[in-house]
Every structure is written in structure tokens, then in C-alpha cells.
Specification:
mainly alpha; Arc Repressor Mutant, subunit A; three-stranded mixed beta sheet; 12 helices; 3 strands; elongated; binds zinc ion
Length: about 210
């Protein structure tokens, strides 16, 4: 168990329980359309999104959530120009909101103090959980498998091996558009969904085939 000071502590969560939290969130706040609208989910949960100029330069993070868990600060550049990254950042902070808010002690501090505190609070352990939450929220496994099976004549696992590299590239582009996430996130979610299929460990393999 990891103790995080001031009574706050993030418990161990296995992937299944993180996914359950994602499913509850989607069921409660999502209209069922892809790409998943993270802004609408925030809205539903009473969370505002505030782009900040030079956030990543000043704080060396893409985003973080306020002490009252009601505002997600995002780097304005990312907000304006990098929708994949922006969407993942918001989904990651949503992960902190859903998974960790209840363990976080109530602190009223300046933004800077809060940031320093939250950085300690969300150690690697909590960061993994928030990242896994974000990936599962943006790319739900059932939908990923459905889309891929659809593209590969009913079975991705069976037919993947026969596909040409240009076919794989075309499908990857389709998957990327459907979920509106980066190739990295798709690769990670494919590893989660098809753990036995070693070849699907990164997108380079997709291209090399
Ligand atoms: Zn985080």
C-alpha cells in the first residue's frame, strides 16, 4: 500500500476494476456515440475545462485538475492544435476525478501549492490507473474488437495475418478516426484487447507487414 501523506492514499486497483469505473462513467454520462465526447462527459459531471497559456512550460504537464476537482486545466496549445492529445489529457484527468477524488484530502492551497501536492499524490501508481482509465474510456475494448472484427471479415485474430501492409494502414486510419486517438493509444488498447497476439505490439509492425 502506498501512503501519500495527509491521510490520502490511492489503493491498488486491478484493470478490471478500473474498467468497471469506466463503464459506470460511460453509462451515466455518455450518449453512446464515437468518438467519445469527453467534453460532454465533463459537462455532465460538473467539470469545466480551462485552457491555460504555457501550462506545459510552467508546470511541465499537459493538464491537471483543480483542488475542488471542478476544473481541468489544459495547455492552450494542446487544446487548440492537438485534439488527440487534448482528448487523452482530459480523459486522464477524468480518471483522477473518478478513481482518486475520494482519496484526496481536502486542501485549500494556492494553485502552485496544490499542483505540487497533487504531483506527489498522483505517483506513478495513480498515473498508471488514470492512463488506463483514459485509454479504456476513449477506446472501449468491446467497440475496438467489434470494429476490427468488422474490418477483418468477422475475425481480426484469424485474418490479421493475411492482410497486406496497405490494407492494415487503411484500417488503422479508420480506427484512429473512429476513436479520435493517437496511434500509441490504439496500439496500447490492441495489446490489452489481444494479449496473445504478440505481433500487435506497435504500429511499426502494422506497417512492416
Ligand atoms: Zn495524472
Amino acid at each position: 500500500m502506498v501512503y501519500l501523506g495527509e491521510g490520502g492514499r490511492v489503493p491498488y486497483l486491478n484493470k478490471n476494476s478500473i474498467v468497471r469505473n469506466v463503464e459506470d462513467t460511460l453509462e451515466e454520462c455518455w450518449n453512446g456515440a464515437f468518438p467519445v465526447d469527453v467534453e460532454a462527459i465533463c459537462d455532465d459531471l460538473g467539470i469545466g475545462i480551462l485552457p491555460i497559456v504555457d501550462l506545459s512550460k510552467t508546470f511541465r504537464v499537459d493538464a491537471f485538475i483543480s483542488a475542488d476537482f471542478k476544473t481541468i486545466y489544459v495547455d492552450s496549445r494542446e487544446f487548440e492544435r492537438d485534439s488527440h492529445r487534448y482528448r487523452f489529457s482530459v480523459a486522464h484527468e477524468l480518471g483522477h476525478f473518478v478513481l482518486h477524488r475520494k482519496y484526496c484530502p481536502n486542501v485549500t492551497k494556492s494553485l502552485d501549492e496544490w499542483f505540487q501536492f497533487f504531483r506527489r499524490f498522483t505517483n506513478d501508481y495513480a498515473e498508471f490507473q488514470a492512463n488506463y482509465f483514459a485509454g479504456s474510456l476513449l477506446v472501449p475494448e468491446v467497440e475496438l474488437v467489434r470494429v476490427l472484427d468488422d474490418e477483418f471479415d468477422g475475425s481480426f485474430v484469424r485474418n490479421y495475418w493475411h492482410a497486406s501492409s496497405s490494407e492494415l494502414g487503411r484500417i488503422l486510419m479508420k480506427v484512429r478516426r473512429h476513436f479520435r486517438v493517437s496511434d500509441d493509444v490504439i496500439a496500447r488498447r490492441m495489446r490489452d484487447a489481444f494479449p496473445g497476439v504478440d505481433e500487435i505490439d506497435n504500429n511499426k509492425k502494422w506497417r512492416q507487414k
